[in-house]
Amino acid sequence: MVVKRWRGVLTLIQKRRPTAAFLLCLSLLYTYFWWVTEVQWVVPTLNGTGPLKGKIICLDAGHGGRDPGAVAGRVLEKDINLDITKRVAVLLKKEGARPVLTRTRDKNMAYRPFQGSLQLAGLRERAHIAERSGGHVFVSIHCNSEAEGKYSGPQTFYERGNSRSAQLARLIQEELVQVRSTGRQAIPGDYYLLSSARSPAVIVEVGFLSHARDRSLLTSPPFRQQVAEAIARGILRYFRE
């Protein structure tokens, strides 16, 4: 009786081999996309060498999911933020750093409100990721916007009274103005992410989506690469100086 049952099981497995093969392929495909979209951004550089070896850099792509950030027609801030953030991560890994991203795809950062606000809950989750990562610095990347459409160029913010954050912001701003000229300097800002960060932290507004020229530049991959390189250079200078 037992032998007959096992024979029945083996016959069933043999009959369903195509299904098993399909499920295996599906599993391998899922694993590949999981690596591409998630894991590769938080895995330390193997045998990393370079001036940033051993440094953990927490990078935050602002907004995401239900929160698009600034919107200009079909241009969404959240998409530009993520693209630039990933480019910065690639550059930092080449210098030996370990970049940790708060998000690696277009997703909601929170599903339950905190103190009645989903936005605050999302910011709180970003701060928790930064803290858990043990990052030596925290860099949050955004695009700016204003009603009149007359302001342009990058702007970097830091928490007032935090000298290390101020230095990081100054160095990043100095590099950014080489890419997109502006008379602005790094300035203090009153932001939840800056006040809650345990490490030196800055918010980088890479340009104004409300400004026609800035918007045109920010939708250009080559320009976004230049911006990413400027941010990476600023971070590199921070650890060198």
Produce the secondary structure layout.
Layout: H1 2-15, H2 17-37, E1 56-61, E2 71-72, E3 75-76, H3 77-94, E4 98-101, H4 118-133, E5 137-144, E6 155-158, H5 163-176, E7 187-188, H6 192-196, E8 201-208, H7 212-218, H8 221-240
Parallel strand pairs: 1-4, 1-5, 5-8, 6-7
Antiparallel strand pairs: 2-3, 6-8
GO molecular function: N-acetylmuramoyl-L-alanine amidase activity
Transmembrane segments: 20-37
Pfam families: Amidase_3
Q: Give a quick account of the main beta sheet: strands, pairing sense, barrel closure.
A: 6 strands, mixed
Spatial order of the strands in the main sheet?
Answer: 4-1-5-8-6-7
Beta strand %: 5-15%
Mean pLDDT: 88
Low-confidence stretches: 32-37, 39-46
Shape: globular
Structural class category: alpha/beta
Care to describe what's here?
- The protein has 241 residues and is α/β, with parallel strands linked by helices.
- The protein folds into 2 domains: 1-37; 45-240, 3-Layer(aba) Sandwich (Aminopeptidase).
- It is built from 8 helices and 8 strands.
- It has helices at 2-15, 17-37, 77-94, 118-133, 163-176, 192-196, 212-218, 221-240, and strands at 56-61, 71-72, 75-76, 98-101, 137-144, 155-158, 187-188, 201-208.
- The strands form 2 sheets. A 6-stranded mixed sheet has the order 4-1-5-8-6-7, sandwiched between helices. A two-stranded antiparallel sheet has the order 2-3.
- Helix 5 links the parallel strand 6 (155-158) and strand 7 (187-188).
- Helix 3 packs across helix 8 and helix 5 runs antiparallel to helix 8 (221-240).
- It holds the Pfam family Amidase_3.
- InterPro entries: MurNAc-LAA_cat, N-acetylmuramoyl_amidase_3.
- The chain crosses the membrane at residues 20-37.
